[in-house]
Design goal:
Layout: E1 2-5, E2 8-11, H1 27-39, H2 46-59, E3 63-67, H3 70-80, E4 88-92, H4 98-105, E5 109-113, H5 124-130, E6 135-141, H6 150-160, E7 163-167, E8 175-176, E9 179-180, E10 187-191, E11 204-208, H7 211-221, H8 244-254, H9 257-275, E12 297-299, H10 303-312, E13 318-319, H11 338-346, E14 347-349, H12 358-373
Helix pairs in contact: 1-8, 2-8, 3-4, 3-7, 9-12
């Protein structure tokens, strides 16, 4: 039997399938949801505020606010910083499409920027070249836990009077030499989607050191008011609240974060040890200073053939997304993005669910080795 996954055809295998990534929820998480239901408060309320205080304390920033998703966190941050219709925002050409979609949700237009193929992150030189008079923000995506070149991007943003926002969807609690990613700009945006190291089903949050941005986010989230007890709506706002059910699950999952990060490092190290002698595979530099990869990645010129081979063995890898300039909604000339083309045609993530076993990792390694040996 054949079926499709991530655009590839997959065959049944006699061995149990190994997914690319699956969330891991347990009885403690179920109990946290049960207790929240019994409390009877399911709107955004005390559990949200408790979790936001935890985030503020952990990351050492004064302001944290939960959001329905990282995409919404990005859009809210842009709007809170004054980005509007007629403005442009720089976005890396290699990122999940939600980064660019958030710009359009805020009313602005994304300007695609090429990436460094050795780090997968936004190329500061290309960013400087693409700045326009109406460019009001740069979104630095910390792709898969690797820090973008924030010092260079910060200088570019300052020179042009633009804001700097961190898309930290794939870098929860990852660090660089300066500190936690997501705390080193005007606003940091995070994700709790099911493919992240911990999850609340959907959801995300914003971190900022700026009181004005924080208060603007509150107004935008809740119909233009700072307090739900007020019937005074000072500006146009929306309903982007997060339920306390999601916050309760996030609080429960947060207890597992340290162990999940440690396991992610172990899984990545096992793949590198098992595959580093294969000449056709390139492992790009891993984060330092307390950073980590959420998903083990590598590059190979025969990526697509390897993917088909693994799928036939019941193993599901995850090719990188198509570059944004190849998406119909954001189409742009191919020749302008050589770094992005290299990444989107060669880069891949290996299976790395939180519950993946060492035996399953060795099965993946053996299958990859068999492909290149043949």
């Amino acid at each position: 039997m054949m079926f499709a996954t991530n655009g590839y055809a997959m065959s049944d295998s006699k061995q149990p399938d190994i997914p690319w990534f699956e969330p891991l929820l347990d009885a403690e998480d179920a109990e946290a949801l049960k207790q929240q239901v019994l409390r009877g408060f399911v709107n955004e309320g005390p559990a949200n505020r408790e979790f936001e205080q935890l985030l503020s304390n952990h990351f050492g920033v004064p302001y944290a606010r939960m959001t329905p998703s990282c995409t919404m966190a990005l859009a809210l941050s842009l709007m809170a910083l004054g980005v509007k219709h007629g403005d442009t925002v720089l976005v890396p050409d290699i990122t999940f499409i939600g980064t660019a979609s958030a710009v359009r949700l805020a009313g602005a237009e994304p300007i695609l920027v090429d990436v460094d193929p050795s780090t997968f992150n936004l190329d500061p030189q290309d960013a400087a070249r693409r700045m326009r008079p109406n460019t009001k923000a740069i979104i630095a995506v910390h792709l898969n836990g690797r820090s973008a070149d924030l010092s260079s991007l910060r200088a570019i943003a300052k020179k042009h009077g633009a804001a700097l926002i961190e898309d930290t969807a794939e870098a929860l609690a990852s660090r660089n030499a300066e500190g936690f990613l997501g705390t080193l700009s005007d606003a940091g945006c995070f994700s709790f989607a099911p493919t992240k190291v911990i999850t609340s089903g959907q959801g995300g949050f914003i971190l900022t050191r700026r009181k004005d941005v924080f208060e603007n986010v509150i107004r935008l989230k809740d119909h233009g008011r700072l307090s739900r007890s007020s019937d005074l709506h000072e500006v146009t706002g929306f309903n982007f609240k997060v339920t306390d059910l999601q916050a309760a699950l996030a609080l429960s999952q947060w207890k597992k974060l340290g162990g999940r990060i440690a396991r992610a490092r172990e899984v990545d190290a096992m793949y590198i040890e098992g595959l580093r002698d294969i000449p056709e595979i390139t492992f790009t530099p891993r984060p330092m200073h307390g950073g980590y990869l959420m998903w083990p990645d590598f590059k190979t010129a025969r990526r697509d053939q390897l993917v088909q081979h693994l799928l036939a063995q019941g193993i599901t890898p995850r090719p990188f997304w198509p570059a944004l300039h190849r998406q119909p909604a954001y189409a742009a000339p191919e020749q302008e993005y050589p770094g992005a083309v290299e990444v989107c045609t060669r880069a891949c993530w290996l299976p790395c669910s939180p519950a993946i076993t060492n035996e399953q990792i060795q099965r993946v390694i053996s299958s990859v080795r068999a492909f290149f040996k043949s």
